[in-house]
Design goal:
The structure holds 2 protein chains of 2 kinds. By secondary structure, chain A is an all-alpha fold. Chain A contains 6 helices and no strands. The chains are: A mainly alpha, B mainly alpha. Chains A and B meet through helix 4 and helix 5 of A and helix 6, helix 7 and helix 8 of B.
Chain lengths: 228, 220
C-alpha cells in the first residue's frame, strides 16, 4: 500500500471534486419532464453508488487475500474499505430520498433499486455486528472474511431478481425520462464521468486514512506493551 | 460418498437420541401456525391468497432459521477436532446441508399440512406448489447451514443467526413467494420456468460457496 502516501492522486481528487461541485451546479442541463433542475443530483447521488460498489469490491478482494495468506493487515484493509463503503451507501440513500421527495413525491416508494440498496446496507450492518461479537483477532478476521464473501456473492443475484418483480421508477427505466444511453446529454457527461472518478477516489482516500490511523494505533499499543 | 453416508447416519442417530431438539422444532412451527390461526379467527377475517402465501413462507422462514441454527450446537471442540482428522471439511458441510435439507422438507410439509387444516388451502395447482415448497426448503437449508456455521463461531446467539441470515435469504424468499403465488393462481407452469431455473441457480451458488468457504471457517 505504498501509493497511499503519495500526494498526486489526492490533489487529483480535490481538483475533480471542485470541478464537480462548480460544474455540476452551474453548467447548463437538458430540460426534461418531471426532473427539471433536480437532474443535477446525478453528479452527487449516482457516484455514491459507484463509490460504494468499488469500495465493497476492494473489501472483498482483501477478504479473499486474507483467507489465502492469513495476514492480519489484509483484514484491517478489508474492514476499513467496508466501513467507508457503508458511509457512501448511507449518503447515497439519503441523497436519493431527498431527491425522490421532490420528483416522486414520496421519500420511499418501494422502488427495486431503493430496496436493493437497503438490503445491501443490512448485510454490511450485520457484518459490523458480527465483527463486534467476536473477540479473538485471528478468528474474527477469518469468520468475518467468510461472511463478507458469502454475503456479497448472494447479493449479486438480487440485481437480476428484483427488477423482474416490479418496474423501477428510476430515470431511464419504466418509460421515465432519464439519462440512459441515448439521452445522457453531452453536457451531463462532461461532469458525470469525472464526478464518479472523483467521489470514488475520495472514498479510497478516506479508507486509506483510517487504515493508517489503525496501523499507527497498533504500533502505539505494541510500544505500551513493551514499556509495562 | 461413503463418508457422507456415515456422517448423515451419525446426524440422524444424534437427532434420534436427543429427540427434544426435533420435537422442539415441530412444536415451534405448530404453535406459530396455531397463533396465526387464532389471531386471524378473532373476527372471522377472510384471508386472501396473497396473505395466505406470504404468512406461510414467513412461518417457514422463522422455523428454518431456528432449526438450522441448532445444526452446529451439538458439536464441541474436541469432537470437531476428531471429525476433521477423519474427513475433509467439504464432506462435513455437505452432509450437514443434506441432513438439514431432509429436516427442513419434513418440517415444511408438516407445517403445510397443519396450515391447510387450520387456515384453508387456496392452492389451485397442488403438485406444482409441492415442488416449490421442496425447492424452497432445500434452498433454505443450503444457504442457512453456512450462516449457522458462521454464527456458531461467534457464540451461537439466536439474534446473530437471524440478522446474518435475513439479508442473505431475501433473494430466495422473494423468488419462492413469487413462484408459489403462480401455483396458487393455477397459472400455466411454463410461466414460472424462469423463476424455477433461478431458484436452482441460487441453490447452486449457495452450495458452491459453502464448499469453497467452509474449510476456512472450520480451520482453527
Amino acid at each position: 500500500m505504498e501509493w497511499m502516501n503519495k500526494s498526486w492522486w489526492k490533489i487529483l481528487t480535490v481538483a475533480l471534486l471542485c470541478y464537480t461541485v462548480v460544474g455540476g451546479l452551474l453548467f447548463p442541463v437538458p430540460k426534461l419532464l418531471i426532473l427539471n433542475e433536480t437532474i443535477r443530483v446525478l453528479h452527487f447521488h449516482v457516484p455514491m453508488w459507484f463509490g460504494m460498489i468499488i469500495l465493497f469490491t476492494i473489501s472483498i478482494v482483501y477478504a479473499i487475500k486474507f483467507l489465502r495468506t492469513d495476514e492480519l493487515k489484509y483484514d484491517l484493509y478489508s474492514q476499513n474499505f467496508a466501513k467507508t463503503g457503508i458511509w457512501f451507501g448511507l449518503m447515497g440513500i439519503v441523497s436519493g430520498m431527498i431527491w425522490a421527495k421532490f420528483t416522486w413525491g414520496e421519500v420511499w416508494s418501494g422502488d427495486p433499486k431503493q430496496n436493493a440498496s437497503a438490503i445491501g446496507l443490512l448485510i454490511y450492518f450485520a457484518y459490523l455486528i458480527l465483527r463486534g461479537s467476536l473477540t479473538d483477532g485471528m478468528q474474527r478476521a477469518r469468520v468475518t472474511a467468510v461472511y463478507n464473501v458469502f454475503a456479497f456473492a448472494t447479493l449479486i443475484p438480487l440485481i437480476f431478481i428484483l427488477p423482474r418483480l416490479t418496474d423501477s421508477l428510476h430515470p431511464g427505466s419504466g418509460g421515465n425520462p432519464g439519462f440512459n444511453a441515448y439521452d445522457l446529454d453531452s453536457d451531463l457527461r462532461k461532469v458525470f464521468y469525472l464526478a464518479v472518478i472523483g467521489w470514488s477516489l475520495l472514498g479510497i482516500w478516506f479508507a486509506s486514512l483510517k487504515i493508517r490511523i489503525d496501523l499507527l494505533n497498533e504500533k502505539i499499543e505494541d510500544k505500551e506493551l513493551v514499556i509495562f | 460418498m461413503s463418508q457422507i453416508q456415515t456422517f448423515l447416519y451419525k446426524e440422524f442417530l444424534l437427532e434420534w437420541r436427543q429427540k427434544y431438539l426435533i420435537n422442539g422444532v415441530f412444536l415451534y412451527t405448530s404453535s406459530t401456525i396455531f397463533i396465526c390461526y387464532l389471531a386471524f379467527s378473532i373476527r372471522g377475517v377472510f384471508i386472501t391468497p396473497i396473505v395466505w402465501n406470504t404468512l406461510f413462507w414467513i412461518i417457514v422462514l422463522f422455523s428454518a432459521i431456528n432449526t438450522i441454527a441448532k445444526s452446529f450446537l451439538q458439536e464441541n471442540n474436541q469432537r470437531d477436532l476428531y471429525y476433521y482428522s477423519i474427513a475433509s471439511p467439504q464432506v462435513i458441510i455437505i452432509s450437514k446441508i443434506i441432513y438439514n435439507a431432509i429436516l427442513m422438507v419434513s418440517v415444511t410439509f408438516l407445517a403445510l399440512l397443519l396450515y391447510s387444516l387450520l387456515l384453508g388451502n387456496p392452492v389451485q395447482d397442488q403438485l406444482f406448489f409441492f415442488v416449490v415448497v421442496l425447492l424452497g426448503a432445500v434452498g433454505f437449508s443450503s444457504t442457512l447451514t453456512m450462516v449457522s456455521s458462521i454464527a456458531s463461531k461467534a457464540g451461537n446467539s439466536g439474534m446473530l443467526m437471524a440478522i446474518l441470515s435475513f439479508p442473505i435469504i431475501i433473494p430466495l424468499i422473494m423468488m419462492v413467494i413469487k413462484v408459489s403465488k403462480n401455483a396458487i393462481d393455477g397459472l400455466d407452469r411454463g410461466e414460472s420456468m424462469d423463476e424455477i431455473l433461478l431458484l436452482f441457480a441460487l441453490n447452486a451458488i449457495a452450495i458452491t460457496l459453502a464448499l469453497l468457504l467452509y474449510p476456512y471457517i472450520s480451520r482453527n
